[in-house]
Amino acid sequence: MLSDLHKDLTRPPGRTTRVKFVAGFTVICLSVWLQVLVMRRVGGHIGGFLPALFWMILNVYMIYSIYARRLHDMSLSVGLWFAAIFLTLFTVAFTVAVGGGADYFAAMNDNPAIAEDPEANRLLIEKYQADMAANVGVAKWINLIPAAALTLFCALRPGKTDANKYGNPQI
Questions:
Q1: What residue numbers bound the domain in which 45 lies?
Q2: Of 73, 103, 137, which closes a domain?
Q3: For residue 46, is it within any domain?
Q4: Tell me: the pLDDT tens digits for 61-119?
Q5: 52 to each of 22, 41, 61, 141, how far by Cα in Å?
Q6: Distances (CA, A) of 145 to 88, 93, 111
Q7: 122's torsion region: left (phi>0), alpha (psi -120 to 50) or beta?
Q8: Predicted confidence (pLDDT) per residue in 53-77, tens digit
Q9: Looking at CB atoms within 10 Å, which of 13, 46, 78, 79 has the fewest?
Q10: Can you name the residues that pair with 164 across neighbouring β-strands?
């Protein structure tokens, strides 16, 4: 049953079962975790950046593919995945703004000379980072809500048992 998992991770058209979705999601989580470990070891030079960029694009594509196939199995459009991505990005932007980002940009706009003065710029960045650390706290977990909700939805909701516009059900 899991022998065709590579198809679920690399081919968005089609359908996949809940079990294969969970297995694919686990593979993707391991891939992201391994990427972080390797990139910490390799460092930030160009020789590490290009493989990291390729790996990140591959991970995003696998995420898109597994969610698309699972949503198709429920006879839903992949637009739901894009909506979850948009909501996640919105919550991140909101968290950054509330956590101190708005104050940082206001200070830069009020006094553009800060950008030219390395010491003043460093102090403003340190203040911004301290504000973020103090203000965000639990709010950073709010950023995960849209993606977590979609993941649980895909993992728990049964697919359609009959053929739909995305293909025949998998056995």
A1: 1-73
A2: 73
A3: yes
A4: 999 999 999 999 999 999 999 999 999 888 888 877 777 777 777 787 788 887 788 88
A5: 25, 12, 14, 25
A6: 8, 14, 36
A7: alpha
A8: 898 999 999 999 999 999 999 999 9
A9: 46
A10: 167
